[in-house]
Amino acid sequence: xxxxxxxxxxxxxxxxxxxxxxxxxxxxxxxxxxxxxxxxxxxxxxxxxxxxxxxxxxxxxxxxxxxxxxxxxxxxxxxxxxxxxxxxxxxxxxxxxxxxxxxxxxxxxxxxxxxxxxxxxxxxxxxxxxxxxxxxxxxxxxxxxxxxxxxxxxxxxxxxxxxxxxxxxxxxxxxxxxxxxxxxxxxxxxxxxxxxxxxxxxxxxxx
Amino acid sequence: xxxxxxxxxxxxxxxxxxxxxxxxxxxxxxxxxxxxxxxxxxxxxxxxxxxxxxxxxxxxxxxxxxxxxxxxxxxxxxxxxxxxxxxxxxxxxxxxxxxxxxxxxxxxxxxxxxxxxxxxxxxxxxxxxxxxxxxxxxxxxxxxxxxxxxxxxxxxxxxxxxxxxxxxxxxxxxxxxxxxxxxxxxxxxxxxxxxxxxxxxxxxxxx
Amino acid sequence: xxxxxxxxxxxxxxxxxxxxxxxxxxxxxxxxxxxxxxxxxxxxxxxxxxxxxxxxxxxxxxxxxxxxxxxxxxxxxxxxxxxxxxxxxxxxxxxxxxxxxxxxxxxxxxxxxxxxxxxxxxxxxxxxxxxxxxxxxxxxxxxxxxxxxxxxxxxxxxxxxxxxxxxxxxxxxxxxxxxxxxxxxxxxxxxxxxxxxxxxxxxxxxx
Lengths: 207, 207, 207
Fold this sequence. Notes:
Chains A, B, C: Pfam families: Gly_transporter (PF03458). Chains A, B, C: Keywords: Cell membrane, Membrane, Transmembrane, Transmembrane helix. The structure is a homotrimer. By secondary structure, chain A is mainly α. Chain A has one domain. Chain A is globular and about 50 Å long. Chains B and C meet through helix 2 and helix 6 of B and helix 1, helix 2 and helix 4 of C.
């Protein structure tokens, strides 16, 4: 189980880092900029979570495999960004898997540090979407996750929430994490397929 | 006294969250984006303060009433943003009250954690203006508090500074907090009324 | 030795703060905005480092001389920004010296807090470039350090990396810090003179 989690964690990091690298290449950043954006996208969510729960130094600094994986993804993007952009669909699938894993693992870690189910769910969401927000801010654009995306954060909320509720009810954690991750992934997958979105306020244009 | 502080704290959070929600609606963010911007505006200042003084997990995560209040404000904005925009003047008044409370409470909390009066005043300012900065950065614009606003941060400096000076001189804290909050609010109120502003550097256009 | 380090640290802060102040004046921020941007540029890197290694409250808050130096630089910029802009070349030299000092001192501090050489080098880079990133984000532009600059971050990597490697091999720290700082400064100096840059991904325009 633990090995499977680590493996999925690294896959999530790799795919998140790809999305940062692709954006960096589009903005004509140099090699270093591509690496920074890849790393920031992959580990910012986890670093913010660790700082907020007092788990310093954060896992992303204590364990060199995480950042190395993100840097590898940055180098891959730098050289083969054309291919990655054409692979858009598989990347979206991996990204949904990464989101599901990050939301569930982030919630579980916060619960292990003694936070309430409410706070732990929030930290799961932060773990899942923090990287994408950092990525977009670094190229000075409004984070896409705040705009109309297909239930991105809602999926993270569902995944983390299930783990937190199971914890509050005293249910076993492992199956709750599996169910939470699957539901998060499935919701995001269906939302992309069907174009499900959250509403925008009516008459937002007319001040 | 303590209940009054909590009440004002929640009012401050609610009004700060309204300002974030209104900006989010104007930028056509979806419901989730509105909630995130409302929460970020309301609690970022306090979270940054808590992380910097080592009070983790931050109060905003440990106490679910704070974020719930911010989310409620987000939902209210989402549905009745037109009314809120027309209420601009009352909102500015509440916002000034929130700023005064946050600056004074932030300084007092930092002093309680053993920081110097100098550092505590800075943390009071950060508590007061941090949320507005996060709100503006999330929609990729230069924070208004750094541009020509009517003595926004200066008012926070005065409010927090009085609490810090009273602490350094060994004076009782409660009256200092009341005086600091009143002066901060009064200064901001007069600045809005009279259009008081800080100067801009001369010839800033001619490089 | 310790006095020399403190002196260079303050010089680094002063010069970094100048670069923030100049940018603030150009964006027509008011006096407070100039001070905030000067301080943010000077101390953000160190504050982020201190939060990540658990050294709270951060040195920039605990020691009032650091922020006072940054504010002094902000006031100087506000009044004589025209002169400072004409001094561009000397400022670039001081900035390179500040980068070298910050990268080396940041790495050494992280090592002293028990982090691995890998993580310590990263924290050295963050200490060196974090301020510039915060400065650019606050005026809503993509950080220049991520775009094509003359080996800015690479120089920080070399400086911090030498200190970390020396630590891992058990060599004495003081000479490693001197060599690291000199190499970092020299690399940045030559890169500015000769226009050395990192590559941009080929065909970045053609998606």
